[in-house]
């Protein structure tokens, strides 16, 4: 959890279930990693399931 907290984006509210977090062309972007980390962090805190994905 600590690693996710350090990586997670501070803005936006990640959703539960399938969640688009960016474009496949931005797979190497730091912002994409932050969005994925934020989605998982939020889900773990809520005891929910999330499926962050990149749009192709």
Give the topology string: H per helix, E per strand: HEHE
- Overall body shape: globular
Low-confidence stretches: none
Count of helical stretches: 2
Write down the Rg. Answer: 10 Å
Q: Class by helix and strand content? A: alpha+beta
Distance from first to last alpha carbon? 29 Å
Per DSSP E runs of 2 or more residues, the count of β-strands stands at 2
Strands side by side in the biggest sheet: 1-2
> What percent of residues are in strands?
15-25%
Give the averaged pLDDT, no decimals: 89
Can you describe what's shown?
The chain is of the alpha+beta class and 56 residues long. The protein has 2 helices and 2 strands; from the N terminus they run αβαβ. It has helices spanning 2-7, 30-46; strands spanning 17-23, 50-55. A two-stranded parallel sheet has the order 1-2. The radius of gyration is 10 Å and the shape is globular.
């Amino acid at each position: 959890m600590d690693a996710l907290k350090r990586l997670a984006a501070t803005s936006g509210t990640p959703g539960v279930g399938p969640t688009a977090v960016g474009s496949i062309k931005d797979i190497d972007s730091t912002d994409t990693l932050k969005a994925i980390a934020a989605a998982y962090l939020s889900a773990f805190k809520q005891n929910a399931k999330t499926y962050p994905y990149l749009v192709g």
